[in-house]
Design brief:
Number of strands of chain B: 26
CATH superfamily of the largest domain in chain B: P-loop containing nucleotide triphosphate hydrolases
CATH topology of the largest domain in chain B: Rossmann fold
Largest sheet of chain B: 7 strands, antiparallel
Helix content of chain A: 25-40%
Distance between the termini of chain A: 41 Å
Shape of chain B: elongated
CATH topology of the largest domain in chain A: Rossmann fold
Helix content of chain B: 10-25%
Oligomer: heterodimer
Shape of chain A: globular
Structural class of chain B: alpha+beta
Structural class of chain A: alpha/beta
CATH class of the largest domain in chain A: Alpha Beta
Bound molecules: guanosine-5'-diphosphate, magnesium ion
Largest interface: A-B, 81 and 108 residues
Strand content of chain B: 25-35%
Number of strands of chain A: 10
Number of helices of chain B: 15
Number of domains of chain A: 2
């Protein structure tokens, strides 16, 4: 049987690759593989820090050529204004083919998280919008910025994650995925979600943003912001559906740890107004990043349920 | 000692980031029988090395851990068993990836399932690992699953094995029990690797539940003087020999933004390339020198595996996706017939002589298993003569592909010696393969190589003439009148030359590249001219064989 001879330590090159170089090389290989094997790939661009890193990696993968696929932003209609202006400026500056998709029908019917509950609202404005958007353009592969360290069901996801004709994930029957040999074969109507950041941690993402000088939405940086202060929670006033009680609205030095929809994303008190300070805060915090997203607390395993239904 | 220290809120961030940037990466997989305590061990590693977020701990205990308090009764396995079905059944179905780091290193753990029926997920987790932890229940010794996992770890070329002999608390930390298991393990590894090429084995007595010898040395095993598990993980040399092997670049893509730049992009599978090195492009066999090594961050003087780069050449070479660029002095082997070890994943049994798609590097081509040599019985480690393989079987087979593969044996190079087999009907990943050697290279040398192409021929007479001409040269040809785009696409994806007879409709061929045979029936040389055209655009190979070009 094949076995590998032990390494000759003396012959090893002095220049080892760092973990970030290894992760970058792996992600670039994934981008190139998808762009070559699929007819109509797309990158789901959510404006957040992970999407920002994905975008830089895509630029690197096809340099000096352009990124050979469009970006799709699934806009729930409840994104912070700073996110939308950041997105539009970046698309112009980098000359990106950016498409925006919204569930206009649901928005016209007045869908919002208070009337529908977080679960149903996400279902309509995120999951349904995403599936409709992908179907409308006929995309057969979609890059997403999810990482395995984010959440327990994501920890099990393949890099090439197969979706059936209804866009759904079957976690009990995933394709084996060996080495870096990805099986890109699908039947018409099926698709693959691709996660090039699977093996990156939150700390890796921030460190890479720092080293690469990657632009991110200013909402990540602490500054005085108008917040409804309720118990431990800071609820941004912008587009809030929460009615503030007298004295609850205050200017607080705060920032967002992850960018969701304005009605459902809590802020944190923070002085971190630079990336090194954000990293310092992260390593001393010891609380996983999705905890300040209201959506995950609905029910045990809620992320897995959403993913089965087609959410990222 | 492990280099763990608690991180203070006002620590020096510059220093931290500097240290962070120096860290390398170790990927390891865990394996063992169900209930040996894999999930508990990983939960313990994460918890004791302070890599578990408090809200995750709260989610599995229902209470917050006060700093400094004695750890509450945490069900550590709950920290890692992610899927609902797994939490309900209390077993691990699929690989869960976990991340943690110490001051020296980043770690990616692939926590793999123990049940035999999930062997495919175990192989998935092990395929990218540098090290495997085999877990053994001290009360039970080496069970079938531990043997299976040791076998797969060896088969997949994992060089460092660690046997964690767990639940030592349940055998009173007995040195005798431990020593018996250790000696059984050495015997097993010797049997698995009769050629003496066994991976290194380190054995550690632990209690995952109580934490003995996981991160901190135990006071309850005074007879054990080796490293704790975490110490060993921090110190084991990371696999870097890829950088010293002969250079191989499977071409993923040609980057061509304008006529001034033509870069061949890929992830270096092995070795190091310098600007100015002489390379050979395969299968064409043409040579050139590296003009530049392109990256977004500037050109490099040299680059090593596993970096993702693009190369430009001094000469105009016709290289496309699926080709391999090699250092000219040490080209890989090539063959159309191979002997390989395979792990069969699919519920549908292997069928000899049925076409599968073989993905190797960046090329996918039709291949058939011509013979099953044997299946290995994991229990007895003997080879059994069989003529097929079923789900979770491991065996050795002979494979024939329609075009040459340029490869290194898996034992020399994981990246250029591995492949997967895909069922072209269901698209399932049916098997993973590890190339052992080539069979009969002599026949392989003269096997012509052609690319898939759609050939439009308007009259049946011309289709017959063309088909005969292509078959005469041993090309894989199929002739059809079906104006169905999905059918044409799947035939093309099998690597065939597809002759489409009749006038093609726009609907059928939209998005497909079409080569049309001159329709003038008066022209007697239309077929010959068409063949020349196909050679000129490199769909058919030049009439000389590879060997002649190389010499
Ligand atoms: N006494 C004792 N029990 C353990 C130890 N490690 C694991 N267990 C228990 O063994 C059972 C199976 O553990 P689990 O981690 O789920 O095993 P897995 O199936 O290999 O992932 C659980 O009840 C654990 O609490 C140990 O070191 N000592
Ligand atoms: Mg388990």
């Amino acid at each position: 049987m094949p076995t590998l001879a032990p390494p000759d330590i003396a012959a090893l090159p002095a220049s080892r690759l760092s973990h970030l170089q290894l992760l970058e090389a792996e992600s670039i290989q994934i981008f190139r593989e998808v762009a070559s094997e699929f007819q109509k790939p797309v990158m789901l661009y959510s404006i957040g820090k992970d999407s920002s890193v994905m975008l830089r990696l895509a630029q690197k993968a096809f340099y000096p050529g352009p990124i050979p696929f469009p970006l799709l932003h699934v806009d729930t209609g409840y994104k912070f204004n700073e996110m939308i202006s950041f997105r539009d400026n970046l698309a112009k500056e980098l000359n990106l083919d950016l498409r925006v998709w919204r569930n206009e029908q649901a928005l016209a019917d007045g869908a919002n998280p208070v009337a529908l509950g977080t679960q149903r609202c996400c279902g309509l404005l995120k999951t349904t919008a995403l599936l409709d958007g992908l179907r409308n353009y006929g995309f057969d592969a979609a890059f997403g910025g999810a990482r395995r360290d984010e959440e327990k069901s994501r920890a099990k996801e393949r890099i090439f994650s197969f979706r059936d004709k209804a866009g759904q994930w079957d976690p009990k029957n995933q394709r084996p995925e060996l080495w870096n040999l990805y099986n890109a074969r699908i039947a018409p109507g099926e698709s693959i979600r691709v996660f090039p950041l699977s093996n990156w941690t939150e700390l890796d993402i921030w460190h890479y943003i720092l080293l690469e000088n990657i632009p991110i939405v200013p909402l990540y940086f602490a500054k005085e912001r108008e917040m409804i202060v309720r118990g431990d929670s800071l609820i941004p006033v912008e587009q809030s559906f929460v009615k503030s009680l007298p004295g609850e609205v205050q200017w607080i030095k705060s920032r967002l740890r992850s960018l969701g929809c304005s009605p459902c994303t809590g802020a944190i008190r923070s002085d971190a107004d630079t990336i090194p300070k954000i990293i310092a805060e992260l390593v001393s915090f010891r609380s996983s990043e999705r905890a300040n997203r209201v959506i995950d607390h609905d029910q045990d395993g809620s992320m897995e349920i959403k993913k089965r239904e087609g959410y990222f | 000692m492990p280099t763990l220290t608690p991180i203070e809120p006002d620590f020096a961030i510059e220093e931290f980031l500097h240290a962070e940037q120096q860290k390398d990466l170790l990927r390891f997989s865990t394996a063992g029988s169900v209930d040996d305590g894999k999930s508990t061990l990983i939960g313990r590693l994460l918890y004791d090395s302070r890599n578990v977020y408090e809200d995750q701990v709260r989610a599995v205990t229902g209470k917050t851990i006060a700093p400094g308090a004695k750890a509450p009764a945490i069900d550590f396995a709950q920290l890692t068993d992610g899927l609902r079905a797994e939490r309900e059944q209390g077993i691990t179905i699929d690989v869960a990836y976990r991340f943690f780091s110490t001051q020296r290193r980043k770690f990616i753990i692939a926590d793999t399932p123990g049940h035999e029926q999930y062997t495919r997920n175990m192989a998935t987790g092990a395929s990218t690992a540098d090290l495997a932890i085999i877990l053994i229940d001290a009360r039970k010794g080496i069970l079938t699953q531990s043997r299976r996992h040791s076998y797969i770890a060896s088969l997949l070329g994992i060089r460092h094995l660690v046997a964690a002999v767990n639940k030592m608390d349940l055998v009173d930390f007995s040195e005798d029990v431990y020593n018996t298991i250790v000696s059984d393990l050495h015997t097993l590894l010797g049997q698995l690797n009769p050629d003496g090429n066994a991976p290194s084995l380190v054995t550690i007595p632990v209690s995952a539940l109580d934490g003995d010898n996981v991160v901190e040395p135990s006071t309850r095993t005074p007879w054990y003087s080796g490293p704790t598990l975490l110490q060993h993980l921090e110190e084991v040399p990371v696999w870097t020999e890829e950088a010293t092997a002969p250079f191989r670049l499977p071409v993923q893509r040609v980057i061509r933004p304008d006529q001034h730049y033509r870069g061949f992009a890929g992830q270096i599978a092995a070795g190091t390339i310098h600007r100015g090195d002489t390379i050979v492009a395969l299968p064409s066999g043409r040579t050139s020198r590296v003009a530049s090594i392109t990256t977004f961050d500037g050109d490099l003087e040299k680059a090593s595996a596993p970096l993702s780069i693009a190369l430009t050449m001094e000469d105009e070479l016709d290289i496309s996706r699926g080709d391999v660029i090699s250092i000219a002095a040490h080209p890989p082997q090539h063959a159309t017939a191979l002997e390989a070890s395979v792990v069969w994943f699919d519920a549908t049994r292997l069928e000899t002589h049925r076409p599968y798609l073989l993905k190797h590097g960046t090329q996918t081509l039709p291949a058939r298993v011509t013979r099953v040599l044997h299946r290995t019985n994991i229990q007895t480690l003997t080879d059994e003569a069989v003529n097929s393989l079923g789900m979770n079987d491991i065996g050795v087979v002979e494979i024939e592909s329609t075009r040459s593969l340029f490869f290194d044996p898996y034992a020399e190079n994981r990246a250029s010696g591995s492949f997967i087999l895909i069922d072209p009907q269901t698209n399932a990943t049916a098997a993973a393969g590890m190339i052992r050697r080539s069979l009969g290279t002599a026949t392989a040398i003269h096997t012509p190589t052609h690319k898939a192409a759609l050939l439009s021929v308007h009259t049946p007479e011309q289709a017959t003439t063309l088909e005969a001409a292509l078959l005469a040269e041993n090309f894989a040809v199929v002739r059809t009148k079906l104006q169905s785009q999905p059918i044409l696409r799947s035939l093309l994806s099998l690597g065939l030359l597809v002759i489409l007879e009749g006038i093609p409709t726009e609907h059928t061929t939209v998005g497909l590249e079409l080569h049309t045979l001159e329709a003038d029936p008066q022209s007697p040389n239309a077929v010959a001219a068409f063949l020349n055209h196909l050679r000129a655009v490199h769909i058919l190979p030049a009439q000389k064989g590879i060997e002649e070009q190389q010499s």
